[in-house]
Hints:
Blueprint: H1 2-18, H2 28-32, H3 48-59, H4 81-93, H5 104-120, E1 128-132, H6 135-153, H7 158-161, E2 170-174, H8 179-187, E3 196-198, E4 218-223, H9 235-244, E5 248-252, E6 277-281, E7 293-297, H10 300-307, H11 336-371, E8 375-376, E9 384-388, H12 392-405, E10 411-415, E11 418-424, H13 432-447
Helix pairs in contact: 1-3, 4-11, 5-11, 6-8, 6-10, 11-13, 12-13
The structure holds pyridoxal-5'-phosphate.
Pyridoxal-5'-phosphate (PLP) binds next to helix 6.
Amino acid sequence: MKELLTDASNRAIRYLGGLGSRSVAPAPAAVARLGSLDRPLPEGPTDPAETLRLLDEVGSPATTAMAGPRFFGFVIGGSLPVALAANWLAGAWDQNSALYRSTPGTSFIEQVALRWLLDVLELPPGCGGAFVTGATMANLCALAAARHAVLDRAGWNVEADGLVGAPPITVVIGAEAHPSVTKSLGILGLGRSRAVSVPVDNQGRMRAERLPAMSGPTIVCVQAGNVNTGAFDPVERVCRIARAAGAWVHVDGAFGLWAAAAPSRRHLAAGIALADSWATDAHKWLNVPYDCGLAFVGDPHALQAAMAITAEYLPTQSGFRNPADFTPELSRRARGVEVWAALRSLGREGLARMIEASCAQAQRFARKLAAAGFEILNDVVLNQVLVSFGDAERTMRVIQAVQDDGTCWCGVTLWQGRTAMRISVSSWATTEADVDRSVEAIIGAARAR
Ligand SMILES: Cc1ncc(COP(=O)(O)O)c(C=O)c1O
């Protein structure tokens, strides 16, 4: 065991050490070699060391360097070394971190991580929280709590009786809501297409003056950080209007919620604490390994009512918080461990520096690409930059050429009818030199096309 785990650690260290100098996208030949892993299932045991060697030699080169400093697709953080190390240790602990009585260590650590998160994200200290797989599941959990609460107020127990015959719930979303919100609404029986959609402005921000009149059980979903522009809905104003109508406000802040941790961006999140529930990701801007999303709910009982179960064989009775009382999963890994390690290691100042650095780097991208004559389509308020290189075809050609070149990786999007390169800066590992190298590669690709 010792040799195998030492070998795994050496291989991982070698892999991470090579990320800065390899192509960000895997070479087509490396992807083609994956076929060598697709053999008939061995009838008998095979050597674990040989299995690991094959995985590393064939698997590692076929990965995309998402953990490296120049991956700017989607919204992808790397893993802080301390978060990865904590993840390894927690993997070795192999705790089924569902219930306090059977896993007191990881349950306790998760509780501390939750308190620290509420502190740095400037959310009410009494919130309930769920450590789940990502912001999609966090949206689902928070909206399940919302569904519980608004129907409970109408005298309906949705967990017991379902939605058949329930008082109707009005759901209000911005026209730019992330699809994970509508997916969650669909899973919860509230319909992917049934929500009232509020028009947005040219940055994708909900126009609060266009909110519908609200009465009865109502959930309003706002966004902190548009996946394309990084823009925030006017959360404070929406909260005040919704509050007056007795509606529940949910904030999808998959990456934007972290703005609260950075002094120069905090204004974007003003009033966010007035909402009732929030979703975010730790695997994005906190730079912990996948998968780690977080749901927070102002009234912990609403989340618990939607999620907790009991069974004769489960030691659910506990004076201490059971992690699984707040999540859809019963068996679950101890995600709180790497969150705790990342926050302890960064401290409030280190976290602020990391978020500020990504934002400054996004502005550096925008400034340099604009100076080179390319059009920046969004106001760069956070860590997202949208770039046009002309018409859709040319922009697509440039993006493909950048990905093929391998210096960096940027994705494509369609922003209000315009095809754009989407640059998202979220990694602790990215430096100004990485931005400059990437800008050079992008300009080179654009000039050649
Ligand atoms: C605003 C927003 N909400 C939700 C999600 C979904 O997050 P996840 O992929 O972690 O489920 C994303 C992903 O980028 C996002 O940007």
